[in-house]
């Protein structure tokens, strides 16, 4: 182990209250704990209770600190994470999170960790930690290209005269000097515009990101030089402070005995190798009724077996009802499964019958798919997903379903054709071969271990 001659660290972690953030923080926590460092993982009781179990060998090193989420006006009861409430109410969760400043300050005073790793939402962590002589790092679950698109901390916080309208944000930023077609689509910007700008006393996501970076001592990124060297180098120039890639954090083998797995495995065993498409859009991305209908009709049209993890409600306060087309499940029974609850994603993807993924381009799903050598079909919904998807397409790593730029419309035929191309047809063989090639980049445990050792060496200096 690269850090064996150094003193052991105590690292506090405060991820944003979204499982797409909590899980990567936990993965990094486990890697640090496996080197003998102590982790204080801070979140609400309800969120911690919903996290995957950690290996028993790591329990002496990871302490879960359960905190109460303060109440906020318009925040529904028991809404401890973004999956518990509709998209238009996430702003109230951020306001509640901002009220954690006092309990966090108390924790830092009584526990005195060497470092605290925070997320982009909690832009106030850096100054609170600095006042107490504790160093802070922003751990970005987003890749460097996403952060580069936002610009320097000052640009993120206060804007830039070259980006005034939404149309300006679909162009390559002026500070990106190398050639790249990475960009979001207009419909993704429109969809996320409420979070991007300040609404109802909430601080905008752009300001939160910029202030977080400005106030911290270092930036740690879920990324690797093999994945996005140019963007990591640019980020170093933009931030003018240490930027350390933590590796891509491939998922560990799932050894838990899930109650639903025997039945799921039995269904997967019925299908030929590489024939099943797995569809999931993360824990928070809920399609609109239009998107749900087009997807369902496309799956029906393509004729491939499918396993679809469908989020059709975000918490009990979500009254935007979406429904599959009438008769869809009856017409596809046997060929397809629609799972409306939790599914053991890694176990399913690791099954030989799964031949491809249809995903939203969230980094965790991208990493899991590629570490197992599964080709990707992308259907991004939000800005960060659009940036990741366009980068994967630019690098010819994956294929994206065509959507109209302004309204995001797409056809069932485009869904069916994209799946057939990537999973079946000869002209899509390049995507299947590329996915196998990506197993080394995304799944190499020795490479990941080196990134963690380098990170630890930095934290110990």
TrEMBL record:
EC top class, as a word: transferase
Keyword Transferase appears in the UniProt entry: yes
Keywords assigned: Glycosyltransferase, Transferase
Any GO molecular function: soyasaponin III rhamnosyltransferase activity
Listed CDD domains: GT1_Gtf-like
EC number(s) stated in the UniProt entry for this protein: 2.4.1.273
Matching Pfam families: UDPGT (PF00201)
Residues annotated as transmembrane: none
Origin: domain of life: Eukaryota
Annotated family: Belongs to the UDP-glycosyltransferase family.
Protein name (Swiss-Prot/TrEMBL): Putative UDP-glucuronosyl/UDP-glucosyltransferase
